[in-house]
Design goal:
11% strand; six-stranded parallel β-sheet; elongated; alpha/beta; binds adenosine-5-diphosphoribose
Length: 422
Amino acid sequence: MIGWIKNLFKKKSVSKESIQLPILPESDILEVKNYALKDWKLGETHGISHWQRVERNGILLSLENGRIREDINIKVVRFFAYLHDKCRLNDWADLEHGVRAAEMLTTIRYTILKDFTDEEIALLGKACRYHTTELRTGNPTIDVCFDADRLDLCRVGIAPNPKRMATKQGAYYATNIHLVSKHVLKYEKNSLRQKIAVLTGAGISAESGLATFRDSNGLWKQYDAKKLASAAGFHENPQAVLDFYNYRRKQLLEVEPNHAHKMLAELEKLHDVTILTQNVDNLHERAGSSHVIHLHGELTKVTSSKDRLNPHCIKDYPLDKLICLGDKAEDGSQLRPFIVWFGEYVDAIEVAMDYVKKADIFVVIGTSLTIHPAANLVEHVHPEVPKFIIDPNTKKAPNGFVHIKESATKGVDKLIEELRNL
Ligand code: APR
């Protein structure tokens, strides 16, 4: 049995005025919370703040002497809070929404509810189905669900009626409604491995000694991008392009990951970190990041100049080995660097978009956000997700982003601090 439940059952007499709500792991309900939020079109009357209050009320109603009563299944109560409104058609008298919610449970039985026993599914189903039609059922878990929702009627200007509550506790709190709002539901800090998506650009490797593209000493200030980073340029002067990439491949042997790369790898100890990098260097991997998606290719690989995405032709190529004119790919075509050149399709963008949409936290480090479709990823972050950008020069951070106006190596320490305080 989960440790926090054991502690909740030890008997100790506590007055209602001084009850402290137990601090619970949010990880237990995050998936159902996100499911409830997904495609939610109705307003806040039945939105996330209501559901969180119903969760809080449910926990409060389940306490006896400061402990969760053994005869109440708090998991069912917490899931009820986030599922009972899921099938609402409108924000007012939709009395059938409970029945629809009960039916909807079958569609998530083996996903979000996979850890539920059949008995728990039955309890949750009844709580959803009857919470607007039955006064009480006599089952403590279901009746607590009923009252948890009814105690929040004040949000629509209705004072909960002690006579219309299913439980003694419910009647008590309906009479002393001021006591309810005193309680705030807190989740265990850092109990949750968060899904963090980090979009990086050339700026994160600048302090390792690799030039960015558009800063004063940037590559595209020194070289012609059209000539050196396009299929047309390769066709026109393949030797010049190979020289350019051989120089950059060799440079990779002379540089090391910096503190910023290393801290992102470190972060994996606490969270599920996905690096979505525009960089073609391998410094994230060398720093220890285990989940790196390269949007613009990799200098450590080569491919066919006839079909660059042909998996049989994409090969690791030792960095100290030059790519030369006449070197053949598997398909007999001229070998080229495995780089996404201007005008070429960014095949990893859909996968990246998916990680951005699913992220609990989104971070941008060292990119001018000028090159699409990568730059467009910032538009797909969930509005409620904490967003950070680390860049010493960015004039205006994208909307809703916390701007850490520092270099990558300094900025990541501030970021880690921010994440701790989330
Ligand atoms: N720490 C953090 N950010 C930095 C640092 C640093 N030490 N130094 C520079 N920067 C920032 C700059 O302020 C700028 O916003 O890094 C960004 C670098 O921007 P670009 O040079 O435009 O590089 P990037 O955004 O990665 O380019 C995108 O363009 O040329 C193509 O395919 C190439 O992937 C590349 C894409």
